[in-house]
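Bug report (template v2)

What were you trying to do?
Predict the complex of my protein with WT7.

What happened?
Run completed; filing so the output is reviewed.

Input:
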Amino acid sequence: MQGFGSYEETYRDFDWQKAREMVGYREGEVLNIGWYCTDRICEMGLGEKTAMIWEGFSGETEKYTFNDLRINSNTYAAYLKSLGIKERDRVCIFMDKLPDLYFSFLGILKIGAIAQPLFSAFGEEALFTRMEDAESIAILTTKKYYRKVRRIKDQLPALKHIIVVDDENVKLEEREKTFILKNAEKVDEFDVFPTHSESPSVLHYTSGTTGKPKGALHVHGSIFAQSVSARWALDLREDDIYWCTADPGWVTGTSYGIIGPWSLGVTQVIYNGGFGSEKWYKILEKYGVTVWYTAPTAIRLLMKDGTGLVKQHDLSKLRYMCSVGEPLNPEAVHWGREAFGMPFYDTYWQTETGAIVISNFPGMEVKAGSMGRAFPGIEAVVLDLNSHEVINEPNKVGLIALKPGWPSMMREYWNNEEVYKSKFINGWYITGDRSSIDPEGYFWFVGRDDDVINTGGHLVGPFEIESALIEHEAVAEAAAIGKPDPVNMEVVKAFVALKPGYEVSDDLELSIMNFIRKRLSPLAMPQEIEFMEKLPKTRSGKIMRRLLRAQEWGEEIGDTSTLED
Ligand code: WT7
């Protein structure tokens, strides 16, 4: 697939019809993501190329070629089909980042069923809400987790199969079975179900501020956007070794941890372990990772451990680093340059958008603190907060909105047409995020709609305050929220976690206040700093400002099923 030219030319010349041609698809043809990422790659003569380099908790490694990926996903497909599972049935995957997760994901798609990934650390309640809503017919899980399912299965009448994939010796109860890939007869040829570009593929639940989590339903045609953006925004090329640190329980882990890279025949490193600075640098070094896609929370934790640790590793193969999920503080971009000799390239999107919609691109000037520009084929604008007219004026903050019609856009919220419809105003899809846009089309993120602080009638985004705070040498993480104030409605309150080696003291607080005073407008200055051991975060690493806010306001916290332990 061709590379990214100049931004202006690429944006001007590109449309989604071109994307379909770039992935070799003709209108009306059969299109199946499972086939596309495996059989097709083998047909291109890359069957023996490594698709997955897997490393487990305790350092054990496994390698799989694209042909292994093809056969193992066929084997899963054939097994699920033999259970009577058919197109559009929802099949959950509930396990750690094991090779089976990846094989079964592609296998589910090959039979035309809908893959419903669930984050393995979910508790019963989180699991139950999502499976009940989706009326999932089956769940693939492991010895470590099947008991969670067992405890809720009686309340899930639609659930017919609970399949343990890593242990034959589990004492099975009703509806439970085991399927052990290595003991199964391998299926070399499988008749892939003839899905087309509008057939449903993946159902990802996303948490809102209030109400139940919403299931964003995607289609097989999402691959057009995922493939082209993996090529252009993540700069993936044939000989790359790529590491996406996200878990497939979240959309980054499927769109760019499975579909995007494998649709391009790229080798992926998958590390089934948690965060650790030393460990992560070792992974980058050992496998010669060239392209790395991670998140601001992780980057801030790495920053906490300093540049010295980075320099102790040979990371000479690394050539491109990207970030997603939260605003990327300017400090993190500068630190990237200092520690790795290159910036982090920020990318912006949502579960709902299925693929990157605003991004920095290779070769483009990175403006630290900006998310970059609209992805080719995406019309992205800033709308006035009240009138919903397009403003697009420098320094004017409004809502980020997108013109519907790109291939990876969700097609519905499962069982929730009303909320789905409420996301569209005047023909725009409203993201729920606020930003301004500069004359060159760069977006400057301000905050999520529900995180924005209203102080004395002025709207202040948490992002600039937090970015100023973490520039201070003692600050590792920061969150800013509005707390109630009789005069100004809200005033800014900051929460701060310190780097190792720093102690909370009045002097330190004063030093931080003086430091940020030079960087912030008086309106944005916190009235108060509260020090915390660490900030509350979602399991996908986002700071949960609304939880801190609810505590200040004495309000209901809302849905916390994605809160970290
Ligand atoms: C929300 C979507 C899609 C990737 C994983 C998150 C925030 C995402 C950025 C960024 C500032 C960002 C937004 C967005 N977000 N990327 N580069 N800069 N904020 O998917 O869980 O659906 O969250 O994450 O608020 O709406 P998600």
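What did the reviewer find?
The chain has a mean pLDDT of 94. The CA atoms of residues 12 and 376 lie 8 Å apart.
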